[in-house]
Amino acid sequence: MNFIKKNYEKILLGVVLLGLVGALVFLPFYIIHDQQELEDTRNSIISRSVKPLPPLDLTLENTAIQRLQSAYRLDFETTNRLFNPVEWQKTPNGTLIKIASGNEVGPRAVTVTQITPLYFILTLDSVETNEFGVRYIIGVERQAAASPSQRVHREHYSSLNEKNDAYTIRAVNGPPENPTQLVLDLTDTGDQASVSATQPFRRVDGYMADLEYDPENKKWTNQHVGADLKFDDDDYIIVAINQNEVVLSAKSNQKKTTLPYNSNSQ
Question: Quick check: 10 pLDDT over 90?
Fold first, then answer.
């Protein structure tokens, strides 16, 4: 105990020195550990895996490029009313019609409500026998003829190989006074046709149409090619009709307008 009392300063100094020596011995390990932590931290920041970037969405840019490549046109006629205010037109009955598309009045406003085929018809009406031989009475009907007087049923008296403006009888099948069939050559086309008392010959030669013009509440029925129509303070003529459309021509400027026919809507 006296030794400790007399030498405690030396003992304390020795303990301190031992602590310093231990610290010096441990210091390299601490430095290595600290350096390893720094290296791990650096690697975690620099060498970490990076997710690939999503594909770039260039929709807006491509749209802008396409708009630049195509000319930009302003419609100041049909949709924009800055320089073309909406026109209103009064009908004969006083009704006002808004002209938005331009087809509310005029030939484009005419609608085709019906198209009917017109036939060239041959019928064996009767057979006449006398001292001069056998005569065949054949009815001819031209429904598509230009003149109404030419559309009526007309009878022709004909003999074998006798030609007229409609046909020529080329053969008679069966007894001459009571034939089962007549074979004809058609004058206009040269085609061959057959006709009997019970079986007429029919060929489509044209069409007639029914039309309406709603702005003036007008209707035309059974109109043939060449018919005159008057509406919207102008005169028109039907220049063509087929199973799908009617063609009008303005008399003032010969401008043609095609009117479609939709049979499914009727």
Answer: no
